[in-house]
Automatic annotation (TrEMBL):
It comes from the Bacteria. One of its GO terms (cellular component) is protein-DNA complex. Keywords: DNA-binding, Transcription, Transcription regulation. This is LysR family transcriptional regulator. The keyword Transcription regulation applies. Residues 7-64 form the HTH lysR-type domain. One of its GO terms (molecular function) is DNA binding. Belongs to the LysR transcriptional regulatory family. The keyword S-adenosyl-L-methionine does not apply.
Length: 304
């Protein structure tokens, strides 16, 4: 079995310089070496490759056919090393690398996708991978190292004092009321949440959205009567459109809106949900994660 030949990059560079400069003396001057050091390095390379690289040509030396063959393949190696060096430099600057995001459903189209589009324009070498995950799962993934950045609601995120995660506020997402177009209050001026205290409500049976709807209504002075339960906005808005009840809908879920539904902005008692990002503490200083957080903050700021 033939043992793989050892290719020494430094010595190959010396051989390439000799081809370019023509003499050992000129090569030594270009590389800030002594002529004897150049000769010794090339002699060692010839032994490593087990071929003759130089032959006498009068008072000078010239490269053999074997040397030209070696350099032809070495050029491909040099080119790949240049690409690797450029990619490493980009990685160090946050222009390259990979960032994995875990985000809740409405944050994906509203924040994550626009941020990814922006990063593709500004930092095409940075790869972002997205995984839809609700709050509890997102932080498990973050803790386990399966994602690098998690988006969730502040009420279900680790506190700012958590030693494991760093938490970054993104935006306060207003909650609007979804009413069927034929509802008596669909065009009422100065609509308040308390005006809907006697309505049938549609929201999740448990989890974040159930808690957010209940808390908002209680802050407005009433306990909502849950007529129907659904977790997805498509189902909730379909029921609103059918006149089966009303619902609080985050403005970030605008893409799910239907023609038979009126979205009303509440007046004085407008509830909001706070969206935050979290990373493993210290990771926010990493260049690739930092670029991604900056893009998310920019998109969030444009939504305010």
């Amino acid at each position: 079995m033939r043992v793989m030949t050892e290719w020494d990059i430094k010595k190959l560079r010396i051989l390439r310089t000799l081809r370019e400069r023509g003499t050992v003396t000129a090569t030594a001057e270009a590389l800030l070496m002594t002529p004897s050091a150049v000769s010794q390095q090339l002699s060692n390379l010839a032994k490593q490759l087990d071929v003759t690289l130089l032959e006498a040509h009068g008072r000078r030396v010239r490269l053999t056919d074997a040397a030209h063959l070696v350099l032809r393949h070495a050029e491909a190696v040099f080119a790949q090393l240049e690409r690797a060096e450029a990619e490493l430099e980009g990685y160090a600057k946050g222009d390259a690398g990979q960032v994995r995001i875990g985000a809740f459903s409405t944050a994906v189209p509203a924040l994550v996708v626009p941020a990814v589009r922006r990063l593709r324009e500004t930092h095409p070498g940075l790869e972002v991978r997205v995984r839809e995950a609700e709050a509890a799962e997102a932080y498990e993934l973050l803790s386990d190292g399966a994602v690098d950045l998690a988006l969730s609601l502040a009420a279900h995120a680790p506190t700012a004092r958590d030693p494991q995660f760093a938490r970054i506020p993104l935006l306060a997402d207003p909650l609007d009321v979804a009413l069927p177009t034929h509802h008596p209050l669909a065009a009422a001026p100065g609509l308040r949440l308390a005006d809907l205290s006697g309505e049938a409500w549609i929201f999740g049976g448990s989890g974040p959205w159930s808690e957010i709807t209940t808390a908002a209504c209680e802050a407005a002075g009433f306990v909502p009567v849950q007529a129907h339960s659904a977790a997805g906005w498509t189902a909730i808005l379909a029921m609103v459109e059918a006149g089966m009840g009303v619902a609080l809908v985050p403005r970030m879920a605008a893409a799910e809106r239907r023609t038979g539904v009126v979205m009303r902005v509440l007046e004085a008692d407008q509830p909001r949900r706070h969206v935050v990002a979290a990373v493993r503490r210290g990771a926010e200083d990493g260049p690739a994660v930092g670029r991604t957080l900056a893009a998310l903050r920019t998109i969030a700021g444009e939504r305010v």
